[in-house]
Amino acid sequence: MIRPVLASACAALLCAAAPAFAAEPAPSAAAAAPADPARLAAARQTVDYIFPLGTYARLMNGTMDKMMDSIMDSTMQMPVKDIAGISGVDTDKLGSASLAEIMAIYDPAYKERMRVSTRTMMAEMATLMTEFEPEIRDGLATAYAIRFDTGQLRDLNTFFATPTGKAYAAESYMIMMSPEVMTKMQAFMPKFMQMMPAIVEKVKAATAQMPPPRHYGDLSDAEKGKLAKVLGISRKELDKSEAAKAAQSE
Fold first, then answer.
1. Contact 207, 196 (CB under 8 A)
2. CB atoms closer than 10 angstroms to residue 123
3. Closest Cα to residue 169, out of 157, 152, 181?
4. What's the predicted TM-score (pTM) here?
5. What are the backbone dihedrals phi and psi of residue 79, each rounded to the nearest 5 degrees, phi first?
């Protein structure tokens, strides 16, 4: 039970740790044209201030651990009926016990196990994210070069070169992940879990007029052959695999 919760929380943290530009809509074709060298050079200088090499290590070593502990503590205090409601289970007969109360019965060492698990996952995520950091910096530089002209970038870099600018640039990204901000975000997960059953029903209503997804048996021979090719297996192997799945679901 704890693994899906842990994996979901880590995925959420990974998304939160990505630079904000990732959430923005793609620029227009004209805006996406390669920036001129001078503009891109100025943008790289900006990125050196706001997202220097080692930012992910700084973020993950301590900050993310504390955030993860806080998020998991908050999640574990949620009533199981709220979590079960996501899958459409009838929760009327479920009590008000929290996930933590149930886990304490199944696994008395769950808190320490969870702490060790999160520390291990955070360490591995830090290694992976640090590996990709140069590419992220390149993406940020391009994004800044697209959104700001050379004069604006020069103004930013002039400010970042001042004592106040350096202090702001060094903390601008970290502030979004600070305990002061993240404690306010903790209320999101319980509220989201409570709303999920209603959200699921709205999704069902919104897609009610769409044809249902097809099963393997609904596919034509040509489509089955195409699927086998895409998966890199023979048609015989695919037929056998799908037959086994069908037998398990009966």
1. no
2. 14
3. 157
4. 0.60
5. -65, 140
Cβ-based neighbour number of residue 164 at 10 Å? 9
For 143, other C-beta atoms within 10 Å of its C-beta total: 19
Read off the pLDDT of each residue in 196-212 and give the average, rounded to a whole number: 89
Chain-centroid distance, C-alpha 68: 13
Alpha carbon 112 to chain centroid, angstroms = 24
**What's the pLDDT tens digit per position in 71-113?**
777 777 777 766 666 565 666 666 778 878 888 888 888 888 8
Measured at the CA of 89, the angle between CA 88 and CA 94, to 5 degrees, comes to 140
Q: How far apart are CA 148 and CA 153, in angstroms?
A: 6
Does residue 74 contact residue 190 with C-beta atoms inside 8 Å?
A: yes
> What is the CB-side half-sphere exposure of residue 19 using CA atoms within 13 A?
21
Structure confidence at residue 198 (pLDDT) = 85
